[in-house]
Input
Amino acid sequence: MSTSYTILVMIIALLILFLYLSWVFVSIKVANKEQNEENTERRYFLFTASYALGAVAVGAAAWPLIDQMNPDASVKALATIEVDISNISSGKTITVLWRGKPIFIRRRTQQEISKAQNVNLNELKDPQKDEDRVKKSEWLVMTGVCTHLGCVPLGDKGDFGGWFCPCHGSHYDTSGRIRKGPAPTNLEIPKYEFVDSNIIKIG
Amino acid sequence: MLKKLKIIIKILFIYPIIIVSANNSMATEGLDLLKNKWSFEGLFGTFNRASLRRGYQVYNEVCSGCHSIKLLSYRNLSEKGGPEFSREDSKNIATSFEVIDGPNSEGEMFARPGRLSDKFVKPYPNVQAAEAANGGAYPPDMSVLAKARKDGANYIYSILLGYEDPPEGFELDEGVYYNKYMPGHNIKMPNVLFDGLLDYADGTEATTQQMAKDITAFLTWASEPSLEARHKIGFKVILYLIILAFVVHLSLKRLWSRIESK
Amino acid sequence: MSEEKYIPKSKLGQWFDSRLPLLSLAHHLRDYPTPKNLNYWWTFGAILTFCLIAQIITGIVLAMHYVAHADLAFESVEHIMRDVNYGWLIRYFHANGSSMFFLAVYVHIFRGLYYGSYKSPREIIWIIGMLIYILMMATAFMGYVLPWGQMSFWAATVITNLFSAIPIVGDSIVGWLWGGYAVGNPTLTRFYSLHYLLPFLIFALVVLHIWALHIPGNTNPVGIDIKQPSKDTVPFSPYVAVKDLYALIIFLIITAGFVFFAPNILSHPDNYIKANQMVTPTHIVPEWYLLPFYAILRAVPDKLGGVVVMFASLFILMFLPWLDTSKVRSAVFRPLYKVFFWVLVVDVIVLGYMGAKPPEGLYLLIGRAATIYYFAHFILVMPILGFKEKTTPLPISISDPVLDSDTKITNHR
Output
């Protein structure tokens, strides 16, 4: 992410410097009109070298001013969280905050798992196999943000045994996939892994 | 040419005048502090990693009983420019402390092991508790202590080594100790450093002076974690600006040569 | 200014320029005839413009992270120093940048005093400059309060208390400034708001300052009027622009020296202690650039007297164009005035030094003597010298060679 920012900033800095210096350069040309142009090449090399060094300086000065808007160290420290899942009983969901968003962690019943696995992919707006959405079929870990316009769906509601978003009526199934309603895609699965059988590391 | 030289000389004098007068004008009682040659002093100063790690150990085992350092986070221990403990070690340090979190779904506060993202735990929940436990004096938070005192590093070092018996006739109140380098010589903190007080993890001999040096380095880093980055970037910036000045100066001469010849 | 109307080269340019003459303005600025004998003391105007823009940019960036609440301000500044990417750099630049801003403004003002830049027809430029200076001091004072350290809090208490010296309305004004019965959170939040606002007022005044300057054009080291444009002038760009750029780079090297290698040397260690209403620091000291006025304030034993004399020391400068009666503009040709000029420089430095010392004993005596000289310089010396002084002969023009080499004709070097 930071390399693209650096390049962007360098381009902008170079552009601004180019505009200013071309203004200066034009003035030199105007001042030159009556003059004999001796040592043109050495002169232009010197000026070009100055511009180049100046552009780098402006870019280097501008970079911290842009970079400070990137997430700071205290925000990045919370980019990864570990959640203890040992106290969640079957059929229950907990919600944790990760990077400012709710994450649903549900310990699914066998019924919910079978229902999720047996869905015909042709019925799905955003076809995805349940096996591709979970690491251990008993545990569903997904972002609790409706993919329509960002509301938090309500659990154990809706026509498909999963979640229902009250804002505009999207229904998600036991795998968190969109089944009915305006949402375009399934509930997002964040990057996570099982540190051990009791702890999930998200992010 | 002469005129410009005069200008450069004037500028070169403004700098030292400011620095000298700044240093002098802030002097309150002109106490001659103990001076140590610190690795982080000077234009190219850096921290000694081993010293910072020992310093953390001194903070943890000696100071943290009374002094908070609440603006520091456990993750800072593994970040660049500091003690640079491994991330694993920093994490273990963090989990060795209990942090109050909450409220939970029952509305209660609860204790949990510390995380990297947590700030250093405080010995007392608030200033009043700290005062009550320390004879009415608040052991200051040490997050920026080295910047909050003039010549902070040498000040901390001197205070720690400055405990001695009061001179003849010097009246000391109950619970107050004599310190050679404390302004006013009265200090409510007792002497805490003694030879062999702790076992350094790296095997260094824990003399009073060694511990004083290490904790000073640690506290200086805690006040200025960006010190090394600042020196490094600063060197590059000034060098680059000097080169840029040279090139622009040549351009200037080249430009103005036309005016001379007209 | 005698310039022909500028016609942009492109049709689009002409269409735009006839509706909003920005291209004509750019052309004017580019070709603005500048005396060719300006020395480096003239580069500080450009340096100051850079400082203003740099402070505004770094300030806006800091404002993205700073929290203006008494309980959180100090910690938010530390958050900037420790967590925000390059936060330490931006904060140190802003803090030391304000010191450099004042250093440049003092050089700029003293340049004016030496070369008679304030004299007719440039009186309005000078007065606007004084207004800019006053706003700068107000901005800097409020900015220093924001980190909410011990010095922030107590300097705010002392300076706002000054206004209670005003008879009848004094206490009400102070309560109105504080937003409470003492300096507290309401004071902090309104100072933050005004600290953000004032620089833009300064910017507007700077535009007027430069506009007013461009009517008669720059004065020059020998202080004689020259025709602009003429063979005595050069177009601003590239000649003066590059010279200003060069001076700016040198200025930035000095700034970088402070920012990277001595970032806290100009501030007070007590400001790294969080503000405590119960404990007053032993010596309350403002930032160095306010020290001369602090010394003048404390030189007068009476509270109201001190306030009046302090403000008088500022406002007397406004009348300078009329206090200086000399027909000769530049000190280059005023041998006696030159001496008094340097005495004034030393006097102001002495005042600054006394401002940092406790106002007692020898320090107080010197402070009073220096205050008396300060006023004597403007009220007595300058008017009298204008009449009495025997000035040296002025050159005919700045380009023509001079017969007597003692009369220093300064060229662009």
